[in-house]
Every structure is written in C-alpha cells, then in structure tokens.
Amino acid sequence: MSLITVIGRGHGGTRAISHTLYASGVFMGNCQNRSGDKIPPQKLYDACRVMAKYVKWQGELRWNLDALNDVEIDPEFIDLVNAYLEDVLLDPAEHKGWKLPETTLIYPWITRMFPDAKYIHWLRDPRDSIISGHKTDDLSDFGIEYPKTENIRRRRAISWKYQYDLMQATPRPVNCIDVRFEDFVMNQEDTLAKLESFLGIPLGRIVLRPESVGRWKTDKEDHDFDFLLTAMKENGYIT
Predict the structure, then answer these.
(1) Cα–Cα distance between 121 and 108 in angstroms, integer?
(2) What pLDDT digit, counting tens, does each position of 4-39 carry?
(3) Which residues, in sequence order, are bridge partners of residue 5?
(4) Are 144 and 55 a contacting pair, CB within 8 Å?
(5) Domain 2-234, CATH 3.40.50.300 — does that match?
C-alpha cells in the first residue's frame, strides 16, 4: 500500500498534480472539488487550528516552530486527521492519497503521523501564487498570528513565507520529491518521468496551459516582496 500526499500552498498549481494522480488510478478520496481537493475539509481545518497552538509568533515575520518536532502530537489532532482521511485510510486501493493545500499548514505533524507516506513537495513562483486568493491567505483563520495588513497581496505573501518556512523547518521525510509547477507545465514529460520513478506507477497525462507560468510579468499590482527573495533564490526563480 502506498499513501501519497501533496504539500504546497493554495493557488500553487497543486490541482495539476491532483488531477494527474486521479487520472492515474490513485484513489484520492470519495469526493473532490474542481481543484482536486479532498472534501469536505472542515475536520482538517480544525486540525490546523489545534497544531497552531504550538506555534509561537515572535513578531514581524518570525515564528518559533521548534515545538512541532518535539512535543507529543495532540490527541485531538490525531482524531481529526484520521476522521478527515477515514475514506482514504480504509480504502483497499494499492495507491491512494489526498490533496488539500491546508495540509501544508500541518506538515510537521502529518509527517510524524505518516512517516512512510510519499510526499510531493509542490512549489510555484510566489509572484504567480499570490495573484489570486486562497483560503489560507489570512493565517489567523487557522490560529496563526502574524503582522496584520490591509494589503491583500502582502497578506498572501506572508502566508506563502510562513508555509515555506514551516516546510523548511520540518525534517525531510524518507520518501519525498520536490517539484516546481513551472517544470511540470513546461517540461511535463521529464517531470512525469521523475515522478513515475518516485511513485513507482505510470502516470496519466493531462492538458496543461503554458500561459499559467509567468503571469506576474503582466500583473499590475504588488507581487514583489523583499522577504520572499531568499526562498526565490533557493528555488531558482531569481539569481
């Protein structure tokens, strides 16, 4: 049995990999929305709020995440995640999993609950990612403190940074692969070959839109934030 999940911020192009997995015969839950999210999501949302109690905001754009890797996982969190994933965990399919962007908000404890799962780290240029809105734009909805702002683009950028920092602070799972959305779109065959090797299954092909890459280049609103530069350099979006 292989359990697969996608870790990546909302509006990061994660629907592309979710639709690919579904088209490849991976059981992705009894019900998904058009974005390929496993729904209903409320129990996982509640799990996010439970884990958030262990995150300490240190002011500005700094969070102390150390406790997430050390403390015993809150039993309420375990119950909520197991309830959300009940249909997936009980299904007899050889390959199964789920995609819900909010899973990224609880990544440290998900990896501890499912250490043998296969994790697809999904990344998209934040300048494109923050152009459109997502449920996770306001981190306070999930119990995470941050410097509040009326600038919606800045709010989205802060959410992007927090989720990236959270992923970086989590010990890398045994089975993990990094995929950039841009590579998936512009070099689908090469990227799928790497994913097929990682997952151990053949993958279906879906229609992708090259125009979804680099939308920030014609965007007229804020999309450049200094606090994203380090992550952008680390992932090849700028030199």
Answers:
(1) 13
(2) 999 999 989 999 999 999 999 999 999 999 999 999
(3) 98, 119
(4) yes
(5) yes
